UniProtKB/TrEMBL annotation:
Signal peptide positions on this chain: none
Originating organism: Peribacillus deserti
Name of the protein in its database record: Glutathione peroxidase
Keywords: Oxidoreductase, Peroxidase
Transmembrane segments: none
Amino acid sequence: MEKFQNQALLIVNTASKCGFTPQFSELEHLYKTYKDQGFSVLGFPCNQFMSQEPGDELEIQSFCKLTYGVSFPMFAKVDVKGENALPLFTFLTEQAPGVLGSKAVKWNFTKFLVSKDGQVVKRYAPQTKPAEIEEDIKKLL
């Protein structure tokens, strides 16, 4: 994560076979629009929700690039909840609990907005379209 210091980030757990998968297009638009202003989208594929990310790292990268033109950083497949959760997601969920204080990520395309100084600003539900987050991003830049 050192590479992304001093950048505002939108961190998203993704899946290629989910009803929210078309959000990749809007995420890419946000990335292209604001990347030169110190912003990045970080995608973390996850297969913990109804096995909607079955592919390996190469298949996921290829699908995202060819289908949605994704050029923002996509990481290796991770767990975002449970005993083997990536520590980043443990931190994010502790800093920005969900509805009724729930800490666990409940579904694919849960999004976390992080300020340039590493503060978790807000958590967004999977159904929140990336375009709806744009004003919050602008405030951080």
